[in-house]
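Hey, can you fold this?
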Amino acid sequence: MIADTPAMDTPAPLPRSLLAAAAKAGQHMRPAHAERLAAAMARHVGPSGTAYLAKVVPAPAFVEHARDLLASWSEHPDVPGALLGAAVASAAYAHDYARHNPQTELVVSGPSSTAVHARRTEQVLLQLASEAQREILIVTFGLYMHPDLRRLLAQAVAAHVEVTVLAEDPSDNPSFRGNPGRSLEGTGVRRLRWPSAERPQNGAAMHAKLVIVDRAIALVTSANLTHRAAEDNLEVGVLVRGGDIPARLAEHFDELRRTRVITET
């Protein structure tokens, strides 16, 4: 006769808001720091008396994110410290792995070859526009959108995705003949420009071409945001998913906006 096995208590899953707080804290902590915090949290059955944990690592960034985590924990006092600490440490290691192991993919336009098996620029642009959840940043020299991309960007704006386009402008570069305002008319997209007063006096052009989605995916390409560049021109780019490159690129343009090197039209 087989003896009954004693039932083991299964801990309840973390509330979604607390899980999100753990993920955010882990994202901004080094794995070793997250481990140290997790070990200290494991000694507590709840959040009472844990304010000192924010200073387990005497670094300003750690203190800030640890305090935010402890504030969220105080709203769920039944969650044991060992469980929450493990979530933070896991998030830290997951983000560290993603930063060091991004997924990259070649993207091409124009003639194909047997040496490179890559998706087409137009296909990738349409996919990125359709899968964005929070924000899209587009940077381009030329802007002559084809109808499908224009429609998807307008749909993204309607779905409360923040769509921002930085394009070359004839008012800032007299040799440029495009009209980004006309191309974006009626889409609800926010438009940025690099004012001529902020450029070197040697006639520098706004020449970068990239698309960043949700700060997690970046397409860096030679292709302008035009139908011809997306399909017919000989263009090459790299699509980066994960890692810290998409976020760092987005932060680069954030800072240019804060310092008013780039302004809204």
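Oh, and this one too while you're at it.
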Amino acid sequence: MRASAGRIEGLSLDGMRHIVDVLGDPQDAYPVIHLTGTNGKGSTARMISTLLIAHALSVGTYTSPHLEHITERIAWNLQAIDVEEFARVVGELAALEPLILEELGDGEPRARPSHFDLLTAAAFSYFAQVAVDVAVVEVGLLGRWDATNVAEAKVAVVTNVGKDHTDATGDWRRRIAEEKAGIITPGGELVLGETDPELLPVFAAEGAAQTWVREEDFGVETDEIALGGHLVDIRTPLARYEAVFLPVHGAHQTENAACAIAAVEMLFGRELNAELVREAFASLRLPGRFEVLHRGPLLVLDSAHNPDGARTTASTLAEEFDIPGRRRWVLGMLTGRDVDEMVEGYGIGPGDQVVACNPDWPRAMPAKDVADAARARGADVEVIPSPTEALNFAWRSATAAGEGDLVMVTGSHYTVGEARTQCRRLDLLAPEGTPD
């Protein structure tokens, strides 16, 4: 079936509801944990799935965008759907095209579903077919009018509200919060990672039966930087989980872990087995999220793609790593971002090298724009349009300089994804995606 590039007109879910109706409403066949947030929702979704799998459940996970292959978006027990299975499920949708595109009651033709609509429908259908116990579903954009919102969340998770997909005019934080709050099912439950007290009434207005707010009802009590990650104590209304090792970088990930534990507790209606929590998180992997692939020189892939994410990347570097050599940034972004604010957020400046590139995506920002912003902050700049070749250049330069340099690939999921594929070719990435 051919999908249009745009979203359904009129900010309506009617078209998406029609698609899942044709499919027999597969999204109702299992409980759904639905996630949104400006940053961290993908990491939190993976953490939730890891915890559920540790409790011997069959788990479907739907996330976006992908890094290396579109099949990553639809996973069963955190394993990407097989290519042949993906083709089969999409083929079933194509076979139903006459019903999906049947005329409206007034004789008007239906708008063709978007690419994301079809992927979302395929995920819901696949999860029903393999009979998952729980589906963990990440929104594509905001929430209220996102295609995933045809599912009714048993537990909604909002990680935070930040600056992305906005013109940043007027009361933009409240407007974004109102859209994200749309995933809350009246009478359902909410895990709220956003702590701004001015925004709490926005989420309360959606009528959740129970809401846990980070720092009030749950959160990270202690956080110690450890070799290769963080050692944390996390409290919830139901329990306290001590000495949990998270093999990931960044204090923000400990907050995501607290949200994940709270969400699974809400789903179960009880505290979790502490040893299972520790075992689950000890095996946690977050591809493309401050993913360290090599040390000496240090090679990091981080899909930070908005100003808040850029600042988080900078703080993680400053707090957890000592870079005695030169910082080399492979930087490729999408349009719609304030490139100057992004470059400033990363803390790029004199002494840094920026290799500007173009992600392989229709909305790629011209590498020249990235280069100009970096040059304005005093960085040395190279323009190499291909992310693969940009990585090769930066890596050769870093290895020639010794073991003290950093190569940081960031700016977009698509930049990181292409670079990650090249890292696999260079034997810098183990087959299962874990650091060597």
